[in-house]
TrEMBL record:
Superkingdom field: Bacteria
InterPro entries: 2-oxogl_dehyd_N, 2oxoglutarate_DH_E1, DH_E1, KGD_C_sf, ODO-1/KGD_C, THDP-binding, Transketolase-like_Pyr-bd
Required co-factors: thiamine diphosphate
Protein name listed in UniProt: 2-oxoglutarate dehydrogenase E1 component
Family statement drawn from the similarity comment of this UniProt entry: Belongs to the alpha-ketoglutarate dehydrogenase family.
PANTHER family in the record: 2-OXOADIPATE DEHYDROGENASE COMPLEX COMPONENT E1, 2-OXOGLUTARATE DEHYDROGENASE
GO molecular function, one term: oxoglutarate dehydrogenase (succinyl-transferring) activity
Keyword set, alphabetical order: Glycolysis, Oxidoreductase, Thiamine pyrophosphate
Subunit structure: Homodimer. Part of the 2-oxoglutarate dehydrogenase (OGDH) complex composed of E1 (2-oxoglutarate dehydrogenase), E2 (dihydrolipoamide succinyltransferase) and E3 (dihydrolipoamide dehydrogenase); the complex contains multiple copies of the three enzymatic components (E1, E2 and E3).
Native source organism of the sequence: Azospirillum cavernae
Swiss-Prot/TrEMBL catalytic activity: N(6)-[(R)-lipoyl]-L-lysyl-[protein] + 2-oxoglutarate + H(+) = N(6)-[(R)-S(8)-succinyldihydrolipoyl]-L-lysyl-[protein] + CO2
Protein's GO biological process: glycolytic process; tricarboxylic acid cycle
Function text: E1 component of the 2-oxoglutarate dehydrogenase (OGDH) complex which catalyzes the decarboxylation of 2-oxoglutarate, the first step in the conversion of 2-oxoglutarate to succinyl-CoA and CO(2).
Any single Gene Ontology cellular-component annotation: oxoglutarate dehydrogenase complex
């Protein structure tokens, strides 16, 4: 007990009601009590305040009409002694005629008991029994010892007034301790007192204390749990028998997860749940696929035999069994719940934000504004939950307007180990789940060998989520029977743990024995349940030898009508828009409500924008972008843009959200274009790249008909989302047959801003380019920007788009387009040829400079400054898929020219190592005499860019000179 709590107890003594009344007056007006009491109340800790709150709410605290004329004065005098009103009445009712000394003792008993009860609610889990193996040696927590509060052995059977705390008006200390230990220190331990919302905290307290004995399981319910445990254990044993030593990351030791998840969906279905999106790592995944998701056992056995999981006529590399996803419908007593398990790599927790993005998209599709129909279920490992920062980043999204999903169900398979590392070496907190306290999620710790308790807390968890729309965590403490994988020898590093495991009965064996002892089943019935399931598996095993997947499920549902494409064909889509519609949208983008106090600078920008729409000339980057979004939403296509500062735009060009200068009320022009338009949403994200990119990728997986964009503050910052980019975005279609149309906007360009504000690392994206997996573009005109956005959702397939966007070009006087370039019969250009009409004849052109992005304007300006007439500039707007034939056609115009590749980036970065041989291929295809391209750019460096402006300018001048000077 804290010193402050001890002081509180001492000061209360015989004057509990008196102190509670003073406290009530202090809360109403601190000046109404003596300064000494004022200071005392201000210094109270949370525990003491909680006890005073309970006393203040008790029926025996004093009211003004019960003080017998002894109302306290400002100093707090006048209440101690005989005039204790309701406190006296209630205490005398319980204890009969008693002396003042006995009254004071009884009051002190109540205060101490309430303190004890509160501390059990806060700390009871510290004395609970979670570990099925019994290896965790926990010292009794001193705050849970009645002696801490002045109770001795002789006090166990004295009645104590509780004011219905624990649901009892009075109880002996022995009864109180029995209830508290059973409720908070058994095989379930709950952490909920950190929650600040009183209603949430009170709801959990009532559910835990009201259902502490878990006696609500019927005979059929107990049999159902046994059957699910039998299926979970039997499947793993069957695999071990048929494929001994084959890596499968089995669920052995954590089988209670299966009936727990069944309970979550069953009860969730009753409470309005229609769909669950699941993400999990390896352990137990195959069990999850079969016994929970409904994937045929024969399909899994076939994959163990080396057969593909998808039809052989579908391209792609595939993936190992325990990374694959699936989907199915489950019927829980008439409540149909659709399940989808998201595919994921070995990067464990990185699937978390992807799942939540899918949930958000599905909620939007169902118009699930209350967020009760679709829920994310994330199944974690203990070491990963505590150790991987993406967990915290994902939790941080839970209550944000642009990313809220109404609460996620977190289920931790706590094996008490991470590969070979013990918890005391892999986390600093007491529990692996401590991170969840940052979002005030309730946490239910439970012993995995007590399946009824696991199912019980799962029911409470889903009820909490559906009622309060908040994250909730179930930490199921269990073990892994075969080590990290089935080929591992865990005894190398945990000999004592695995000595214990080898002699430890399985969860199913323990529970079956319990049901036999309870006369729920006979031993013969238990054996028959097991035999029937193993017989079923044998039949599935026989069927697996001829099993063939009959279809790929990736172009169904929302994806129906879309197709698979290859990189050898250009697909432009219908991206041009009528001039009338462009002008109509353009003018509306320049409007705002009459009573809206707009920022004067923005007002001037809008007036200038309106003039470009009227003239049809000088359409800048921001206007073309807004016209692309506007034309899509008017056509009924939704647009979702998120990223750090995306509403305004990092470089203050977008102003998609405008703020009233007097009230800060928001106005979004793109949401006010047409009464029946599609939705437009833009969200300023938290300072997270990894979780937000993963979220938007997940959104794009579930909604192929929206334009979904993520914008980096600077392109360099995509570094921190590299795992999402590498393991999901670039390879998801090849590994898992999952398309995505996600757009990544990465500001890029060398302008002397240093190594972390220059390069979006195009070389990394290009290195991962193959099998038509995505598009890598660096466009140079507003018109091409307009068309590339519309192309994303106007083709018959979806590919991620990595788009390097400019900074200085946002306001560059040459970086403009005519409105007609956005109009009918216009489209995206992968290559932009020379536009000048004052150069020498084509056959006299001596050099062709190929470049991409912002450096084009530097080259153009330098060429004009020098008056050079025999050098042509060609822009590679799309670097991948590489437009080989189009470039060949351009090169053919200049048969006598040498070819130079010019880039701003260092030689070992940027596009050079990617385009070098590809440019050569385009030249060789037409027999061009240039043979191979020449490099012009910065020399190779370890850092992306210099941080010294003078050196930057020198480097920039040299690369321009190298590109334009012919030897």
């Amino acid at each position: 007990m804290s010193a402050n709590l001890e002081q509180t107890s001492f000061l209360f003594g015989s004057n509990a009601g008196y102190v509670a009344e003073l406290y009530a007056r202090f809360l109403a007006d601190p000046a109404a009590v003596d300064p000494s009491w004022n200071g005392f109340f201000k210094d109270l800790d949370d525990d003491s305040r909680a006890v005073l709150d309970e006393l203040r709410g008790a029926s025996w605290t004093l009211r003004d009409d019960e003080t017998n004329g002894a109302a306290p004065d400002a100093a707090g005098h006048g209440l101690a002694g005989p005039g204790n009103g309701a406190m006296v009445a209630h205490t005398q009712q319980v204890y009969g005629g008693v002396s003042p000394q006995q009254l004071r003792a009884a009051t002190l008993d109540s205060i101490r008991a309430l303190m004890l009860i509160r501390v059990f609610r806060v700390r009871g889990h510290m004395n609970a029994h979670f570990d099925p193996l019994g290896l965790e040696k926990r010292e009794p927590h001193p705050e849970l010892d009645p002696a801490t509060y002045g109770f001795g052995p002789g006090d166990l059977d004295r009645p104590i007034f509780l004011n219905y705390s624990l649901g009892l008006e009075t109880a002996t200390l022995r009864q109180i301790l029995e209830i508290l230990h059973k409720t908070y220190c058994g095989t379930v331990g709950v952490e909920f007192m950190h929650i600040q919302d009183p209603e949430e905290k009170a709801w959990i307290q009532e559910r835990i204390e009201g259902g502490r004995n878990h006696t609500d399981f019927t005979v059929n319910g107990k049999r159902a749990i046994l059957e699910r445990l039998t299926a979970a254990e039997g499947f793993e044993k069957f695999l071990q028998l048929k494929y001994t030593g084959t890596k499968r990351f089995g669920l052995e030791g954590g089988e209670s997860m299966i009936p727990a998840l069944e309970q979550i969906l069953k009860r969730g279905g009753q409470l309005g749940l229609k769909e669950a999106v699941v993400g999990m790592a390896h352990r137990g995944r195959l069990n999850m696929l079969t016994n929970f998701m409904g994937k045929p056992f024969a399909a899994v056995f076939s994959e163990f035999q080396g057969n593909p999981s998808s039809p052989t006529d579908v391209q792609g590399s595939g993936d190992v069994k325990y990374h694959l996803g699936t989907s199915s419908d489950r019927d829980f007593n008439g409540h149909i719940v659709h399940l989808s398990l998201t595919a994921n790599p070995s990067h464990l927790e990185w699937v978390n934000p992807v799942v939540l993005g899918k949930v958000r998209a599905k909620q939007a599709q169902r118009r699930d504004l209350d967020r009760e129909q679709v829920m994310g279920v994330l199944i974690h490992g203990d070491a990963a939950f505590a150790g991987q920062g993406i967990v915290a980043e994902t939790l941080g999204l839970s209550e944000l307007r642009g990313y809220r999903t109404g609460g996620t169900m977190h289920f931790i398979i706590n094996n008490q180990i991470g590969f070979t590392t013990n918890p005391n070496y892999s986390r600093s907190g007491v529990y692996c789940s401590d991170m969840a306290k940052m979002v005030q999620a309730p946490i239910f710790h439970v012993n995995g060998d007590d399946p009824e308790s696991v199912v019980h807390v799962s029911r409470i968890a889903i009820e909490f989520r559906q009622k309060f729309k908040r994250d909730v965590v179930i930490d199921m403490v269990c073990y892994r029977r075969h080590g990290h994988n089935e080929g591992d020898e865990p005894g190398f590093t945990q000999p004592l743990m695995y000595k214990k495991i080898r002699s430890h009965a399985t969860t199913r064996e323990l529970y079956a024995k319990q049901l036999v002892d309870e006369n729920v089943i006979t031993q013969a019935e238990g054996d028959q349940i097991n035999a029937d399931f193993m017989k079923k598996l044998e039949g599935e095993f026989e069927a697996s030898t001829t099993y063939k997947p009959n279809k790929a499920d990736w172009l169904e549902g929302k994806w129906a009508g879309l197709q698979q494409q290859d990189e050898n064909t250009e697909h432009r889509g219908a991206t041009g828009v009528s001039m009338d519609l462009l002008k109509e949208i353009g003018f509306k983008l320049c409007q705002y409500p009459k009573d809206f106090a707009i920022n004067p600078k923005i007002a001037r920008q809008l007036e200038a924008k309106k003039k470009t729409i009227e003239s049809g000339e000088g359409i800048d980057w921001a206007t073309a972008e807004a016209l692309a979004y506007g034309s899509l939403v008017v056509e009924g296509t939704g647009v979702r843009l998120s990223g750090q500062d995306s509403g305004r735009g990092t470089f203050s060009h977008r102003h998609a959200v405008m703020y009233d200068q007097n009230t800060e009320a928001k106005y979004l022009p793109l949401t006010n274009l047409h009464p029946e338009q599609g939705h437009f949403e833009v969200h300023d994200s938290p300072l997270s790249e990894a979780a937000v990119v993963g979220f938007e990728y997940g959104y794009s997986l579930a909604e192929p008909h929206d334009l979904v964009l993520w914008e980096a503050q600077f392109g360099d910052f995509a570094n921190t989302a590299q795992t999402i980019i590498d393991q999901f975005i670039s390879s998801g279609e090849s590994k898992w047959l999952r398309m995505s149309g996600l757009v990544m906007l990465l500001p890029h360009g060398y302008e002397g801003q240093g190594p972390e504000h220059s390069s979006a690392r195009p070389e990394r994206f290009l290195q991962n380019s193959a099998e038509d997996n995505w598009q890598i573009c660096n466009v140079t005109t507003p018109a091409n920007l307009f068309h590339i956005f519309r192309r994303q959702v106007r083709r018959s397939f979806r590919k991620p788009l990595v788009l390097f966007t400019p900074k200085s070009l946002l306001r560059h006087k040459l970086c403009v387009s005519d409105l007609a370039e956005l109009g009918p019969n216009t489209h995206f250009h992968r290559v932009l040829g020379e536009t000048a009409n004052d150069l020498v004849e084509n056959d006299k052109i001596r050099r062709v400079v190929v470049c991409t992005g912002k450096v084009y304007y530097d080259l153009l300006q330098e060429r004009m400054n020098r008056g050079v007439k025999d050098v042509v500039l060609i822009r590679l707007e799309q670097m991948y898929p590489f437009p080989k034939a189009t470039l060949s056609d351009e090169f053919a115009k200049y048969p006598n020219a040498e070819v130079v590749w010019c880039q701003e980036e260092p030689e070992n970065q940027g596009g050079w190592t990617f385009v070098d041989r590809r440019l050569e291929g385009s030249l060789k295809a037409i027999g061009h005499k240039a043979g191979r391209p020449i490099y012009a750019g910065r020399p190779a460096t370890a850092s992306p860019a210099t941080g010294l402006l003078k050196r930057h300018n020198q480097e920039q001048a040299k690369l321009l000179d190298d590109a334009l000077t012919i030897a």
